[in-house]
Write a structure and sequence with these properties.
Layout lengths: L1 H14 L20 H5 L13 H6 L7 E7 L7 H9 L3 H14 L1 H4 L4 E4 L4 H7 L3 H13 L7 E3 L11 H8 L3 E3 L9 E9 L3 H13 L4 E9 L4
Length: 232
């Protein structure tokens, strides 16, 4: 069986050669998703500290949290746009998992002490259409790098309209009350980290944070996004 899989993989590489999801060149031996040059050029998020970086300042005063940060600086027209588009819309969940693993290995101090990773959930019908939840795939990659388990207690109880083109106020209204959290027995007051793919206005993460704190006021929260904008 192993030999057959290796033969199948070799044939697939010939028929559908792997390409870097940023520049389109053939990746090197270290990754099937990004070439070495693009990997070195990833725009790291300006995280001077867990409580003073732009994302943390954005959430400060809105909800209580221990730390907030992102792994990468995101721009809808920047070099990362194809990566996020591919794992979000083009059926590359393993790419999201790989990026999560990069993040977990790239900022281990942020996740120190976290007991559970809580991916931002997707409404069941939307996930059925897409086939996966990219935030969960990112969380699975983080788990692989850090050893922190992925939790299941956060649910989307209804759908919401796409937020593209909405103002911050419209996004907050669009995501208000759509999440519910049921902490596992014995895990009240745990340190949990919310995980999302992109933080733009932060409205989705804020709604998740409030759902967690409504169900477990003693929870210690961290807020993480794979990518975040800097011009809040």
């Amino acid at each position: 069986m192993k030999a057959l899989r290796e033969i199948g993989s070799a044939v697939a590489d010939i028929l559908w050669p792997a390409q870097c999801h940023i520049c389109g060149q053939r990746p090197g031996p270290s990754s099937r998703w990004l070439c070495a040059k693009c990997l070195r050029s990833l725009p790291r998020f300006a995280a001077t500290s867990w409580d003073l970086n732009p994302m943390a300042r954005h959430f400060a005063g809105q909800v209580p949290f221990e730390r907030a940060s992102a792994f990468l600086e995101y721009n809808a027209k920047g070099m990362l746009a194809p990566v996020f588009h591919d794992f979000k819309y083009r059926g590359f969940p393993s790419l999201a998992r790989y990026m999560g693993e990069l993040a977990g290995g790239g900022m281990p101090d942020f996740f120190d002490g976290v007991e559970t990773l809580l991916p931002v959930p997707m409404f069941a019908l939307k996930q059925l259409r897409r086939g996966y939840n990219q935030a969960r795939e990112i969380a699975l990659g983080l788990s692989r790098a850090t050893g922190i388990p992925v939790g299941h207690g956060l649910k989307a109880i209804r759908g919401h309209r796409t937020q593209t083109g909405m103002t911050s106020a419209e996004r907050q209204a669009n995501t208000r009350g759509i999440f519910r959290y049921r902490p596992p027995i014995g895990q009240l007051g745990a340190t949990v980290c919310l995980v999302d793919d992109v933080c733009t206005t932060g409205s989705t993460l804020l709604s998740c944070t409030r759902a967690v704190l409504d169900a477990d006021p003693a929870a210690r929260l961290r807020i993480f996004a794979l990518g975040a904008v800097l011009d809040y």
